[in-house]
Write a structure and sequence with these properties.
The protein is of the alpha+beta class. It has seven helices and eight strands; from the N terminus they run H-E-E-E-E-E-E-E-H-H-H-H-E-H-H. Strands 5, 6, 7 and 8 form a four-stranded antiparallel beta sheet that branches. A two-stranded antiparallel ribbon has the order 1-3. Strands 2-4 form a two-stranded antiparallel sheet. Helix 3 packs antiparallel against helix 5. The longest helix has 73 residues.
Length: 314
């Protein structure tokens, strides 16, 4: 192979290397010149030619042009994010027991698991960047949430948190966190009070109290049941007594009716008796077979009537 061939190959290799270098440079320039942001991304453009060192307006989703080597971008997600503080090691943002220890109004220590759902405010991204850059989760979200929880818990007694005031506690914490994050250009979407745990001593005391309350409720139920049984027996006895009274009243009324009927019958019989009828009945008793009776003129009676005790109406 001739020297000319080697020279030609060397020139071709040099040209190829130059082309590759140009392509690389162009690629770098293009990648540095055009920035594409996803739908949930905003960015702060840092610039060596701007008085403050950055553009005063953040750029949003889409394709953007920047000056290569003079400007660069720092991206921020504006999607909702969840920061969890939990006693379960695998759940929280910090490994290990990251629950919030707080004391109630009456001095009881409790432990709270909670989650804060938040998002960066894209309209205030420049201010967030100048104050916190990408440290806002550790330097804002976490301390604001933990402080708000401790402050809110101190306003309630432990009995209130166990029974009637949990929802009110949750709303109080939500309002305080929302205010604290808003002051730092972060939007709070929601707050979740995941769990409230008590010290072992208090948990035992609560359990004993619940057992005592259940026993008291059971005793109250038994007493109420006995009362109902006694009331039922009383009603049965009262019903039997009422039935006896009604029966006695009915018998008395029956006897009264019989007596009144007998008296009426006697009255009617007494009214129907005459002297002649009495003499006739008397004579029949003396001589049942008599067919004719002769009474002397002017005599009222044939025979003197015995003293029968019957009053003859005049």
């Amino acid at each position: 192979m001739s020297n000319q061939t080697f020279i030609n190959r060397g020139r071709f290799s040099n040209r190829l290397m130059v082309i590759i270098a140009v392509v690389i440079v162009v690629g770098v320039l293009l990648s540095s010149t055009f920035i594409f942001l996803q739908a949930d991304e905003y960015a702060v453009v840092k610039s060596y030619i701007q008085p403050k060192g950055y553009r005063t307006e953040a750029i949003g989703p889409g394709l953007h042009l920047i000056i290569p080597f003079i400007e660069s971008v720092q991206k921020y997600s504006v999607a909702r994010q969840t920061y969890t503080m939990s006693s379960t090691a695998s759940e929280g943002a910090v490994q290990g027991d990251d629950s919030i220890q707080a004391r109630t109004k009456d001095g009881q220590q409790i432990f709270i698991d909670a989650s804060v759902i938040y998002a960066v405010d894209p309209t205030q991204l420049i201010r967030l960047h100048t104050n916190w850059q990408n440290r806002y989760e550790d330097n804002v979200v976490r301390p604001v949430a933990r402080a708000a929880i401790r402050d809110a818990v101190s306003q309630f007694g432990v009995e209130e948190l166990v029974s009637t005031k949990r929802a009110e506690l949750e709303q109080t914490i939500r309002d305080e966190i929302q205010s604290g994050l808003g002051e730092n250009n972060i939007i709070m979407s929601d707050f979740l009070l995941r769990n409230i745990r008590f010290s072992d001593e208090y948990a035992v005391a609560v359990e004993q109290k619940q057992i005592a309350e259940q026993q008291a409720q059971q005793a109250k139920f038994v007493v109420e049941q006995k009362k109902q049984e006694a009331e039922q027996a009383r009603q049965v006895a009262a019903g039997a007594a009422d039935a006896a009274v009604i029966a006695a009243k009915g018998a008395a009324e029956a006897r009264l009716i019989n007596a009144e009927a007998e008296a009426k019958a006697n009255q009617l019989l007494s009214e129907s008796l005459t002297e002649i009828l009495l003499q006739y009945q008397y004579i029949l008793k003396l001589a049942p077979g008599v067919q004719t009776i002769f009474i002397p003129t002017g005599n009222q009676f044939i025979l003197p009537l015995p003293n029968t005790g019957v009053q003859i109406p005049q």
